[in-house]
Amino acid sequence: MKMLVIPKKSINAGNLILVNAQYPYCSGNAESSLVPAHSKSSVLLERRAAVLLSKLMSSIEGWEQISAVSGWRSRAEQQDIYNQSLRDNGAAFTEQFVANPDHSEHQTGLAIDLGLRKPEIDFIRPDFPYSGICQTFREKAVAYGFIERYPNGKEAITGIAHEPWHFRYVGAPHAAIMTELGLTLEEYHAFLKQYPNGEKRFLYRTGNQNIEVAYVKTAAGADAEFEIEDDIPYSVSGNNADGFVLTKWRNCNDKG
């Protein structure tokens, strides 16, 4: 066993951070890891998200029909978009479809808006139907770590209207777990709090692996400290609220 110490500031970083009206984006370090969503695009994404998106699009030849509409945004850009929408569309529309600055996932570099290629594309509400190449993308997205972030019927939970075009990278196995359980990111974090590290673990089996997921609660203002087995692949993501998500990968014949 070894002791891991996760700095308290890391609570605001990782694939699983929750950014919404209640939890603002506090890290501000997204720019250091941004790359183009694809070779012919000025849209930027966090590096790992961009790599997985590229693999997904290659598998379906998606870039021929799908356009990357919006990825990472600076705070200033998000403010401009919000202000412009207020002027053009009014408060009611803007509150449904445009997040306030510092409360937008786009500032993390982990979210992307996609739309069908057309001569004119609506920047705020691009067309991304549940048919054709768009549905093919949607069905394969989970395997590459992406979820449709704002599904229909979950508006009261996410605080955002249904957005078929908006996808969020959360990574594996979390995209699959959330999809199979029908959970939004808000609901997933609430769900994981049933599995405090060291007491319980959520077990997800895929292929020849058992994947364990647990919630690590932190004391206010303190680093997170916990033991983990030697030679076990693992990842840790902050939740941007009150702790971390610990994920461990084991072969099915491993004991633990």
UniProtKB/TrEMBL annotation:
Instruction: Please give a single GO biological process term from the UniProt record.
Output: proteolysis
Q: This protein is called what?
A: M15 family metallopeptidase
Q: Any idea which GO molecular function terms this record carries? A: peptidase activity
Transmembrane region(s): none
Q: Which SUPFAM superfamilies match?
A: Hedgehog/DD-peptidase
Q: Which CDD domains match?
A: DD-dipeptidase_VanXYc
Q: Which Pfam families match?
A: VanY (PF02557)
The positions making up the signal sequence are: none
- Cited InterPro entries: DD-CPase-like, VanY-like_core_dom, Zn_M74/Hedgehog-like
Domain named D-alanyl-D-alanine carboxypeptidase-like core: which ranges?
46-171
